[in-house]
Write a structure and sequence with these properties.
heterodimer, A: mainly alpha, two-stranded antiparallel ribbon, 79% helix, B: alpha+beta, four-stranded antiparallel β-sheet, 39% helix, globular
Chain lengths: 585, 455
Amino acid sequence: MKPEPFLHYPSILRGITERIRWQSSWLADISVFVGLLAILYALFASGRIWFAPFTPVANISSSPRALPLYAAYSLVRIAVAYILSLLFALAYGFAAAKSERAAKVMLPLLDILQSIPVLSFLPGVMLAMVALFPGRQLGIELGSILLIFTGQAWNIAFSFYASLKGIPRELDEAARLYRFSPWQRFTELEVPFGAIGLVWNSMMSVAGGWFFLMACEMFVLGERDFRLPGLGSYLQVAAGAGDTRSILWGLAAMIAVIVLLDQLVWRPAIAWSDKFKFESVEGAVPQSFVLKILRRSGVLAAFYRVAINPLEERITQAFAEKKIAAREGTPEPENKLKKLAGRALGIAALAALAWLAYRALASIAHLGGRELLFLTRDAALTFLRVNASLMLGALWAVPVGVWIGTTPRVARIAQPLVQIAASVPATALFPVLLLLLIRAGGGMGLAAMALMLLGTQWYILFNVIAGAMAIPTDLKEASSVFRFHRWERWRRLILPAIFPYLVTGMLTASGGAWNASIVAEYFNFQGKTLSVRGLGAAISRATNAGNLPVLLAATIVMSLIVVTVNRTLWQRLYVLAATRYKLET
Amino acid sequence: MSQTNHVPVNAASPNGGENTEPILEGRALEKFYAQPDGARIEVISPTSIKIMPGKILALLGPSGCGKSTLLRMLTGLSRPSAGEVFWHGRPLSDEPPNVGIVFQSFALFPWLTVLQNVEAPLEARGVAPGERRQRAVRILDAVGLDGFENAYPKELSGGMKQRVGFARALVIEPEVLFMDEPFSALDVLTAETLRGELLELWDDKKIPTRAIFIVTHNIEEAVVLADRVIVLASNPARIREDFEITLAQPRSRKSEPFESLVDHIYRVLTQPDVQHEMPADVKTASPQPAVAAVLPRYLMLPHVRAGGVAGLLEILVDHGGREDLHRISHQLLLESDDLLPIVDACVLLGFATVEKGDAEVTELGRAFAAADIQQRKTIFRDAALAHVPLLQQINSALQAKADGTMLLDFFHDLLDEHFSDDEVRRQLDTAVHWGRYAELFDYDAETGRLSRTLP
């Protein structure tokens, strides 16, 4: 006989806990309801401007009262772009993992796409979208969303591909032996196994998304000015007008949005994804207040019971039956035709790509030697600037990061602050920083470096803190026992221990700095254009002038540099970090 | 079941005679890897196995000998390079077999509850939710997991996880239950309990399965459970012996026939190329051709550390120089799978000899056991250079080179006509360890270079 669980529980206490449970469920339901209402309102408000007549230059209010709405507009853009990215990533990762032949093309392609500076897509995407939806605001909105998408999709896709490839052999065998349908395999094995990677990469991607959103809410294309209502445009307008009060309000709103997003979305997502952790022992479980509320909500539970679960059940059943039927029936006769059609489609796609590549090269071929020479000089200048800003970033972030990471008292306070600082998109701060620098009398060359540094230093600091915190206590104790001098301590213990983390941070920072150069070296500010020589400026200038050949050539040069540096420098350091400097646990 | 301890030893079970059709049959299953140059590395020589109803069949052999690969070919998870598997007389490719597998690593889905894990195979077969739940709960009940339906696997101990593994395998009512080292990730006591429970379920016909196929490297486990044991020799895998065990259940490990069977298997495993006499009360199921067909092969290093060799020799000396291997494994709580490679290494280096399941220290072995660290290294070096071709080759290559260094990869190419890629890597790892211990050479992992040790 099973023991009655409440047997030893006084009935009065039981009554009280019941009441608390009931009340908190009631509160939870209200919170869920309020949350849904907010989302609906944001969608509705966005929908209204999306389908409004085409107004390329929205009138941006500088009143703080407009901020909630602007924040909602920006959030909806980010959210839609993220959902698109996720769907794309799942499909792309899945396709690449299922076919070795496809992977041979898809993976290098992903690598290249990842290295193309996102802002180079801006003119093409925007003009195409505006042309696609003439007379509606939808085009330009979709354009900005697509642009954010190109900044988000690749690394999520790569993460999903990697986790599909990493599924433990025996789990895969269990799924095969028990004849899971593709759907059951996808929902019970593949997505759960990839879930943690998906959540973390989504977080990083969305942070990157903010960076581009800020830049593409307000830009110039040739003669045309574009302005979308949102947080980014609000900040740019405020900075352009030198309106300190509005700037502060805008920054506060930005930080509030990011903190809220962290609390309402990412933390619950991380806490939820913990159940997908593939380890056999229980460890510390990340907690989230919001997730608790969601789990406690009776309305959500009922919704799941009545709507989601039966639907899930029906889909699973349908796929299982289809699989059984397929096994019993004869193999499909049109298989050959399908194969042929697929091959034809593939060839057509390849041909189209080849044609486009040919056209692109042909247009570049028209460039004169002088222009190519200029591009080379620009590339060298930006290369120097990017690496100088990386060095500067490392120079201050390593000692500070180690200090924070090895002093638990400081870490407790500093870490959340750093997290927030790191998640404020640098592009949102650019106009503000530029305003300060110009007021202080600094030149644009200095400003460009400062802007790049702004975008990159946090990655380094962040990773160094993590690395310093991971130094095992026994090694620290050993180095005190051996009475290492300060320098010896750094050389023998700290630097080797944080090395893998530093490499990760610098790699991310390097990619970020190249992307930032497009915004940092060329900026429309207070009706003027401020610029220095550099590859980023070349891309921006070509974008503004609608000079496609130069834009293409500059983009290709930048991608080539990024790929080459990654392959020759960072990848080797990575291998070194993974072999020699790995702390075995 | 009415089976008791007093049932005559040779009685065939009612449904297990020679005339019945096998449920599953592998005919001349082979596995080999094609090399780029067209050569083949054979991992499994043509092997035929029949799974008969009413029997527990154990496939026994040293780790890495290809047992698990055979299991995967029989279940259809892996395609044989040659040969074919038949399910009730029909090729496996026509009809997927109705079988369950219990995995060594449990292979539970950590994000599903116990109940969901057990329901998953039924879900795949399109069983309706109500019935699914009912069947899952019933089987969980049978394996003693009622009350844990909503727990997640990570909340359970190893033994309970494997019970879920059993429940998941049994819930589809498989005709054959396959088990791949099901107890080897568990501690000794838990493993023993689970084995006992499995036998109880099987003997009382509480589980809807008609045959059990277990892969194991644990000799006693095979003798405790199986009605029939197939012993594999490795490199390439081939059937070395195939016999029935007619001892009544439950079997006592202390009984004389039990011990002589275990001893016999030890003999077969330590000297696979010698014909051994069967114990009196065992009958050979299907006489295998004498294993004369062993190809001349490149010597395979057993993957053990020098410290293990020294340890075993010291124990043998303590026991008066000669001891039964089965007893040593018992005393040290060492699984045969951990012990036998060390024995192999001792024999290979000329430190010990093996005969009839006993190991005996040689004079050299005694000297090695008695020596201090530096002397040991000298003895080991001489023995290794005398008996291990790979170390001879590396040594002479290093001596011949003016700068005394070589890339380890060079020897990779030398071995890969004999072994699979993974095995080549393990062989080189072991060779590097032995060479370093013997102070023959040093190895720099970063540059991948071997260099002659300075005298």
